[in-house]
Amino acid sequence: MRPPEQLLYDSEASLRLVDQAIEELDASGAELDVDSHGFLVHVMAQPGGFAELSRTLLRAYAETFTIVQRIRDSCDMADSDADRLQQMHGRLREVSAATENASNGILDSVNRASVLVERLETANDAERKQLIAQLKEELNGVPTHLQFQDLAAQQLGSIATLLSEMRKRIAQIAGMFAAPMGTPVKVDHAPYDHNASAAAGAAAAGQAVADEIFAVRTERKSA
Amino acid sequence: MKFLVVDDSVTMRRIMINALQRIGYTDVVEAVDGHDALAHFDASIAFIVTDWNMPKMSGLDFARAVRANPAGHSVPILMVTTRGAREDIVTAVEAGVNNYILKPFTPSVLKEKIDRCLASTVAAA
């Protein structure tokens, strides 16, 4: 878009030419129809004549220019919020999958434990000892599955922050068009790990990195 | 051996204490964040297991505070966290953490890391 100052200069120059042409036309005594004559009389009666029109045009243009700029800015903001929504969607899917995995893991443990208990009822002493050890193993596995709660809390904490950021941006967009938003919502941000992941293999990959770093450190110390 | 377990999640503290008991460590003190942990920390604590992300004082700041305390120079610190980025692990090492576990963990991994921490502490002494 052209800068408003340039538009003002061009349009004012053009309209001055029009002004001049009308004056010449009037001086020549040429006939105009009633409507055109009325319009010209009205315009010429304004201070500045046709040139004043250019200022009106400029104001309209400047307003339009500003609105277009604000729409562009708000589109940029909306684009970044779309990315955030995508991130939130991914995190919610991960929480859902982690919850499902944990539930299935616990159900599997319970099922296997039930079978072991049934076998215990008819087992002899030697078998009983082995079955009890297996039963303990199954029960001890349950708390491991329950760790999904902490991972889910980290993910949800991250989502709460993203939502809070989005709300601020929406308020900024509304502010651009001078529409006041409601009372800001106070969000209590608990610390969380933005990269916390319950995805399969994520912890194993991280643990491998940690083991490598600590192994190198131990080697250096013992050298 | 007295353990100090620091985590803001009640569930995680229960899981950790449960796992510690299963591998033979029954003397455990709990704390809800680094600030609370410092209040519980004294010469009787022989091993610290801490989370990273916690309100008031993070596990990282807590580890630094323990290392700055003469009574905490040689106490093994095991960080149990969801933070698996290399730079986070390096930061933890620099803060004085002896070993690192990514959540979710199993009791066998916990035992292995505790044994490693204890072995390295004995070797250093």
Please give the domain count of chain A.
2
Q: Tell the overall outline of chain B.
A: globular
The best one-word shape of chain A is rod-shaped
The largest sheet of chain B, given as strand count, sense and whether it forms a barrel, is: 5 strands, parallel
**Number of helical runs of chain B?**
5
Placed side by side, the strands forming the largest sheet of chain B appear as: 2-1-3-4-5
Structure write-up:
Chain A has two domains: 4-67, no CATH class; 82-198, no CATH class. Chain A is built from six helices and no strands. Chain A has helices spanning 4-28, 34-45, 50-122, 125-145, 148-176, 202-222. The longest helix of chain A has 73 residues, at 50-122. Chain A starts with a helix and ends with a helix. The mean pLDDT of chain A is 80. With 125 residues, chain B is of the alpha/beta class. Chain B has a five-stranded parallel sheet, sandwiched between helices. In chain B, helix 2 (34-40) runs parallel beside helix 3. The longest helix of chain B has 18 residues, at 107-124. The radius of gyration of chain B is 13 Å and the shape is globular. The two termini of chain B are 17 Å apart. Chain A binds chain B through residues 140, 143-151, 153-154, 190-193, 195-198, 202-207, 209-210, 213-214, 217-218, 221-222, and chain B through 7-9, 11-12, 14-15, 18-19, 22, 52-55, 58, 81-86, 89-90, 93, 99-107, 109, 116, 120, 123-124.
Question: How do the strands and helices of this protein lay out in sequence?
Answer:
The complex is a heterodimer of chains A (223) and B (125).
Chain A: H1 4-28, H2 34-45, H3 50-122, H4 125-145, H5 148-176, H6 202-222
Chain B: E1 3-6, H1 10-22, E2 28-31, H2 34-40, E3 47-50, H3 59-68, E4 77-81, H4 86-95, E5 99-102, H5 107-124
Helix pairs in contact in B: 2-3
Gist of the model:
The complex is a heterodimer of chains A (223) and B (125). With 223 residues, chain A is mostly helical.
